[in-house]
Amino acid sequence: MTLSPPNVHARRNLGLSGKLLGLTVVFVMMAEILVYVPTIANFRLNYIDDQVNRARTAALALDAAPEGAVEETLARRLLKSVDALALVLKTGDARRLLAVAEMPSEVAVTIDRRDPDDAAAILDAFDTLLNGHKRLARVVDVAPNQGDFIEIVVDETQLRQAMLAFSRTVLLLSLLISATTAGLVYLALDRMIVRPVRRLTETMVRFAEAPEDASRIVVASDRADEIGIAEAELERMQSEIHGQLQQKSRLAALGLAVSKINHDLRNLLASAQLMSDRLGTVSDPTVQKLAPKLIATLDRAIAFCQSTLSYGRAQERPPQRRPVAFADVVEDVRTALGVAPGGPVRFSAAVERGLTIDADPDQMFRILLNLGRNALQAFEGRGVPDPDRDQIRISGRREGAVAVLEFSDTGPGLPRKAREHLFEPFQGSTRTGGTGLGLAIAAELVRAHGGSISLVDGALGATFRITVPDRPIDLQAHARQRASA
Predict the structure, then answer these.
(1) Which helix (H) or strand (E) holds 409?
(2) Residue 452 contacts residue 446 (beta carbons within 8 Å)
C-alpha cells in the first residue's frame, strides 16, 4: 500500500526559509523607520538650536557696539556664520534690526522654540524635507541678557540638505543593521525551527511514498519544546500506521491462504458427508444415536467453510432468527466440544426451564463453541486437565424481552494485554500462535443479533455475558398471520 504524497517540490517556490528571511528584513526595517521618525525631528531641532546659539553670540557682539559702529562687512560675516539673512533683537518695546544681508521676501513659516511641541516637531521635520527647498523661515527663541526674544530669518535649503544627508546616512546604517540582524535572526531560527520543520516535512513525504518501510519512520529527538512533541507524536502516528498496514497485509495473506484451504476442505467434508449418510443404514443402536449428530456436525462444518470466506470479505450473512430452545444449543455445544460426563473437564448447564431465545441457532452454536474452545485451550495451557479444577458452566435466563446468557470457565483468566484488545482479530489472543479470531467472530455474530458481549470483571477465570434482545413484534403483521391461520 502506497500513499500518494503531495507534490511538495512543485509548490515550494518560496520556502519557509525565504519567507522567514523576508519577514525579518521587513520587520527590522519597520523598527528602523519607527526610530528614524523621532530621530530626524530631533536632528532638525538641534540644527535650528545651533543656529540660534550662534545668533545669540552674534547678537551680543552687535548689540554691544554703539549704534551704527559695526561695519556692514563685519555684520555680513556674522550673519554668514549664523547662516541667516537677518537678525532681530527685541528688548522691551524696542525691536532692533541688528544685521541684514538682504531684505528677505515673504517668510513662509515661523519656528518658535520658546514653546516646544514634540508632535508638531515631527510634522514640521517632514514638512521641511518635502517643502524646504528655497523657503524662508522665521526662527524665534529666547534672547540673551535682558532681551525679550531673538529672531532670525533663515533659508531652509541648507537645513533640508543637511536633513537629507542625515537621512541617507541613517538609511545606509539601517540597511546594514537590518541585514546583520536579519542574518543573525535567520540563522538562529533556521537552526532551531526551519531545519527541524523541514526534516519533519521530508520525513512525512518519504513515509507517504512507502509507509510499509519501517526505516522511514521519523526518529524523535530529545527536544522538550513543541517541535520535540511534534516529532514524538509523528513517530507514534507513523508507527501505528505501519503496524496497521502490516496487520492488513497479514489479513490479506491469511484470506488468500484460507480461500485455498477452504476449496479443498469443502470437497473433503462433502465426501465425509456422503460416507456418513451410510451410517443411517447401520442397525447398531450406538451408531443410530451418534449418526444424526455426526451428520449435523458435518453440515455445520461445511457451512463454516463457506462462512469463513464470507468473514474474509466482511460479509457475514444476516442471522436467520427464530425461537430456539437454548438448552438444545447448549447440548450441541457440549457434544461438539467432546466434554463427556466423567471426563477430564467438568461441564454444567444452568438454563432456565423452557428458555427460548430469538436467534439464529447455527450462529449461537458458533458463538458458544468459540468460547468453549478458548476455555479448553486455556485448560491445556496449564497442564493435564483436572475435573475438580477445570470446569465450564453455561447459564441462561430471561429478563423481559432480553435473553441473558453467561459462559464461565475456571481457567487462568485473561491478562491485561488481552483485555485491552478484547474482540480484536490478531490482538486479543493469550496463546502462543493464537489468532484471536474466535472472540472476534463471536462478537460480530452477537452484534448482528443486536446484542452485546462483555467480559465480567471480578469473576473466577473468565466469564462472558451475552445479551440477545428479542425482535420487535409487528402487531399488524401478527394479527394478519393469526387471521389467515
Answers:
(1) strand 402-409
(2) yes
The span from the CA of 25 to the CA of 19, in Å, is: 10
pLDDT tens sequence across 391-400: 999 999 999 9
Distance of CA 415 to CAs 161, 262, 370, 411, 412, Å?
Answer: 89, 33, 19, 12, 9
68-97 pLDDT tens trace: 555 667 777 777 777 787 877 777 777 777
Length of the chain equals 485
d(CA 42, CA 461): 89
Q: At 358, is the pLDDT very low, low, confident or very high (cuts 50, 70, 90)?
A: very high
**pLDDT interval class at 477 (50, 70, 90):** low
Query: Alpha helices of 90-154 — where are they, by DSSP H?
Result: 118-131
H or E element that contains 376 = helix 361-380
More confident residue, 57 or 435: 57
Q: Which of 448, 453, 450 is nearest to 428 (CA)?
A: 453
Q: How far apart are CA 97 and CA 217, in angstroms?
A: 89
Amino acid symbol at 28: V
CB neighbours (10 Å) of residue 219?
7
Query: Taking a C-beta distance cutoff of 8 angstroms, is the pair 43, 80 a contact?
Result: no
- Cα distances from 202 to residues 7, 92, 239, 394, in angstroms, run 12, 83, 17, 57
pLDDT digit string, tens, across residues 150-204? 888 888 888 889 899 998 988 888 888 877 877 887 788 778 887 888 888 888 8
Residues 6+ apart with CB under 8 A from 107: 136, 137, 138, 153
What percent of the chain is helix, strand and coil (3-state, nearest 5)?
Answer: 55, 15, 25
Q: Residue 136: CB partners within 8 Å, gap ≥ 6?
A: 85, 104, 105, 106, 107, 108, 153, 154, 155, 156
Residue range 262-300, pLDDT digits in tens = 656 665 666 566 566 666 666 677 766 666 767 677 677
Which amino acid is it at 7?
Answer: N
When computed from its CA atoms, the radius of gyration of the chain, rounded to whole angstroms, is 50
Q: How far is CA 414 from CA 57, 184, 337, 424, 439, in A?
A: 105, 60, 21, 14, 12
> Whole-structure pTM over 0.70, yes or no?
no
CA atoms of 372 and 337, how far apart (whole Å): 7
Q: What angle is formed at CA 159 by the lines to CA 156 and CA 164, rounded to 5 degrees?
A: 120
| Residue 203 cell numbers, joined | 520525513
Q: Show the DSSP H helices in 210-343 as ranges.
A: 226-277, 285-312, 326-337
